[in-house]
């Protein structure tokens, strides 16, 4: 069977090289008082979204002066956020399952990716779960994670419920992986995942 892609990748940030983003303290306080915590849980947020104030998790002068500002970044462990310079690449029909939600960073408009839904791409037959003391590990769920290519519905960017907060992409045309590499966008790391 022919697929629109050859390889599958997990997506992560590079915290040893680039700064990370976090919600502003004011925004966190408002969420706590209104009991509306920010959750990227696979549900649509487009209709209820209010522009989110974000800031660098730590100032460059206080942590490591060598940390750089990325072009695309992680909002702590919640999602991916793209800078104004590269957001036009994603704003015009990037993927049918991704909402781009406005964030404000130092008077700039960045966009958070909200991946709606989950692909059922995990191959239970080929994956090996990480069992500790007779129970599945909560930290590292798999010794070996394998996806089924035929079950990946959103090759641009997707999530798999069994994999927790992780994001995945492929080498398909117009995928996150392809756009990042084609345009030299800095801030993300891609690790190949086995796919059958």
* Whole-number mean pLDDT: 87
Q: Which shape, going by the Cα principal axes?
A: globular
**Major sheet description:** 6 strands, mixed
Helix content: 10-25%
Which structural class best describes the helix and strand composition? Answer: mainly beta
What is the element string, with H for helices and E for strands?
Answer: EEHEEEHEEEEEEEEHE
Q: Name the poorly predicted regions.
A: 26-33
Radius of gyration in whole Å, from Cα? 17 Å
Tally of contiguous helical segments: 3
List the keywords.
mainly beta, 196 residues, 31% strand, 14 strands, six-stranded mixed β-sheet
Plain-language structure description:
This protein is mainly β. Helix content is 11%, strand content 31%. The chain is built from three helices and 14 strands. The protein has helices at 25-34, 88-91, 176-183, and strands at residues 8-13, 21-23, 52-56, 72-75, 79-82, 98-105, 108-115, 128-129, 131-132, 135-136, 142-144, 146-147, 167-170, 188-195. The strands form four sheets. It has a six-stranded mixed β-sheet. Strands 12-14-1-13 form a four-stranded mixed β-sheet, with helices on one face. A hairpin with a 2-residue loop joins β9 (131-132) and β10 (135-136). The longest helix has 10 residues, at 25-34. Residues 26-33 have low confidence and may be disordered.
